[in-house]
Amino acid sequence: MKKGEIMNEIVLKVPASLRLMSLVRSTIKNYLEIEKVSNSEISKLLSVVDELATNAVEHGYDYDEKDMLVIRVIKETTKIVIEVEDFGIGFQGEGNSKEEGGMGLNIVRKIVDGIDMVKKDRGLMIRVFKYI
Description:
There is one protein chain. By secondary structure, the protein is of the alpha+beta class. It has 3 helices and 5 strands. The chain has helices at 21-34, 39-60, 103-111; strands at residues 7-15, 68-76, 79-86, 114-119, 124-131. Strands 1-2-3-5-4 form a 5-stranded antiparallel beta sheet, with helices on one face. Helix 1 runs antiparallel to helix 2 and helix 2 (39-60) runs antiparallel to helix 3 (103-111). The radius of gyration is 14 Å and the shape is globular. The relative contact order is 0.20. Residues 93-98 have low confidence and may be disordered.
């Protein structure tokens, strides 16, 4: 963040359950509306959140609902930053590399202006940003 830049954010910590994704979408949608993000951008950003959170639940936790996801949405002056973090199994070796990714990550890459993946001992944090 640059000096003098305004930043607002929300942080959601939710069980890793696909059943709760509508609650996540609704909360993020309301936040982005309050921040006066256009409806077309909100729709794209919600697709990004859906893809990243679903990947975390499916691949990071193998649908184990007792684990948690952390989803952070940051509104800066000129961009939106979304971070989805899981504390799941992580990635082992080249055969399971997320740099290549599947269809979901390819969709995300087409929507956002930048993507960064931080592999941890337990889990993965994916940070994307989109200029608005």
